[in-house]
């Protein structure tokens, strides 16, 4: 992430929903995608309205959390947004003012519309009730700006790998009951709760995501496979260009992702020589791979 973040200040926003909507996401976890889609459309729209002709696009990272401090089911999105956008013609514009009234109401509208598309006409009654109940939109909370990139990395990493509950919040277990504590959001009051062990386990396992479900997603300038990404190298600090380019090599990718060198012998620490390649337990000819690569290269040059 350190090599991907743009050298600019970032804003941390939290997009929350009404309590009456939580049960829908618990009963059908596929609806959690609606949260990501709604946040994406709202943030892009806010920047697009800055200058529609230049189409300023920010970079933002969304992290889904389904738990609150009391471990209840409370799906919400943590979003890290660049305080600026990159236009189609290569111009960077700094954006310090975020219209939170627009964010609240736009997020409410976008999410309810997404849910109605997925659930169907049966959701319209709930939708009308939510509009009447939350006339000012859903609550969007913004934390102070994070100026330097290192602070941003440390801050967002807490949310990327954050467990449902930290061990230091579990006070005791007597064989039947579990006691844990938390500080209440509203007034920061200290609250201690004792629940049966099975109930405590139920609180935890409800937050286990579905297999292969992406809890962290990248949008805008941080999205993959963008046609304009080649221009973004200008926005990355020169000291990181070499490391950024090295990510295209499979050996470096494995080393960064899994923490070991794939062609270094774990016993004698000698660098091994690649002689054969296997795919699905079948040997792949290196000569064939070379010929295919050269054929593609010739087609491109032609």
Write a concise keyword list for the protein shown above.
302 residues; alpha+beta; three-stranded antiparallel β-sheet; 35% helix
Average pLDDT score: 83
Strand elements, count: 12
The residue fraction in helices comes out at 25-40%
Total number of helices: 9
Strand content: 15-25%
Please tell me how large the radius of gyration is.
24 Å
Class from secondary-structure proportions: alpha+beta
- Termini separation (Å)? 37 Å
Which geometry do the CA atoms define? globular
Low-confidence stretches: none
How would you sum up the major sheet? 5 strands, antiparallel
What are the secondary-structure elements, in order, as H or E?
Answer: EHHEEEEHHEHEEEHEHHEEH
Spatial strand order of the main sheet:
6-1-3-2-10
Reconstruct the topology from this structure:
Blueprint: E1 10-15, H1 22-27, H2 32-48, E2 59-67, E3 73-82, E4 84-86, E5 92-94, H3 100-119, H4 124-133, E6 140-142, H5 149-160, E7 170-173, E8 177-183, E9 190-196, H6 197-205, E10 216-220, H7 241-246, H8 250-258, E11 277-279, E12 282-284, H9 286-301
Antiparallel strand pairs: 1-3, 1-6, 2-3, 2-10, 4-5, 7-8, 8-9, 11-12
């Amino acid at each position: 992430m350190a090599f991907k973040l743009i050298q600019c200040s970032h804003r941390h926003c939290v997009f929350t929903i009404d309590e009456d909507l939580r049960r829908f996401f618990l009963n059908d976890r596929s609806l959690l995608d609606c949260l990501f889609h709604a946040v994406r459309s709202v943030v892009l729209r806010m920047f697009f309205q800055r200058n529609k002709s230049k189409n300023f696009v920010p970079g933002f990272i969304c992290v889904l959390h389904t738990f609150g401090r009391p471990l209840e089911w409370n799906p919400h999105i943590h979003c890290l947004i660049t305080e600026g956008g990159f236009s189609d013609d290569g111009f960077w514009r700094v954006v310090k003012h975020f219209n939170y009234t627009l964010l609240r109401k736009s997020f409410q509208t976008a999410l309810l519309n997404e849910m109605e598309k997925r659930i169907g006409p049966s959701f319209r009654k709930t939708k009308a009730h939510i509009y009447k109940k939350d006339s000012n939109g859903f609550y969007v909370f913004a934390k102070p700006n994070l100026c330097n990139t290192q602070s941003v990395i440390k801050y967002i990493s807490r949310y990327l790998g954050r467990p449902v509950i930290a061990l230091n919040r579990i006070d005791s277990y007597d064989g039947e009951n579990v006691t844990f504590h938390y500080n209440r959001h509203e007034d920061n009051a200290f609250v201690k709760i004792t629940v049966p062990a099975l109930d405590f386990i139920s609180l935890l396992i409800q937050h286990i995501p579905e297999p292969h479900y992406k809890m962290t997603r990248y949008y805008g300038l941080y999205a993959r496979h963008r046609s304009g990404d080649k221009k973004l190298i200008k926005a990355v600090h020169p000291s990181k260009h070499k490391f950024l380019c090295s990510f295209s090599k499979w050996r470096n990718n494995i080393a960064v992702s899994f923490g070991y060198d794939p062609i270094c012998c774990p016993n004698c620490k000698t660098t091994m020589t690649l002689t054969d390649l296997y795919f699905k337990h079948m040997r792949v000819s290196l000569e064939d791979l070379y010929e295919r690569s050269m054929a593609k290269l010739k087609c491109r040059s032609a």
